[in-house]
Amino acid sequence: MPPLPPLAAQAEHLVELGVHELAGMSADELRDFAREAGGERTDVLLAVHPDRAPASALAPLLRRADKPGFVVVDMPDVDDFVPYDIELPDAPLYLVAGIDRGDRMSNWSPEEALPALTKEERTPLVLSEGIHWVLQEPEALERNRCFMTIGSRLRKANGALDARTPAIWISNGTGRDGRERRDAPKVGWCWWGNRHTWLGFGSTTGRSA
Hints:
By secondary structure, the chain is of the alpha+beta class.
């Protein structure tokens, strides 16, 4: 993957998309954070905390082949998938370092990938971080090379974890997606125990406010 855009450019892109308004902050707050964090840095991703900008609001801002992103229709509870066993910085804006798509783990199940990432001292991306990454670097999604964001999980009313795990990939325009959505960025889910040859596991070496 190429380097990320400079932090200042990332902030400007989020402002152009109106993410600052979603997050209830001013454009200058976003720009100031990026400048103070080192505006020319290309080794970190600027992320808005999911409590401020949830996945359902970010997904439609994605673009590929001039088509907007979307959340699959059978995931109306997408915003209930929250960080699991991951402590995000207690701040509206933070940085995500060392992002990797996890291509080496393609055809692994989330159940198999999580302990391997932990052994490498990496943590999986949460869904909103994955969306932020594709917003800034659309090349992160390629045909047959997309990724899961298993840092987000849903706990059911009985206390058990939902077997679905969020992922971001490219729609084929089949089924309920609709032909008009072919090639659009897609937020969906996969089963915790299933393998997919075209999905790696997005992960990070750390987060900081």
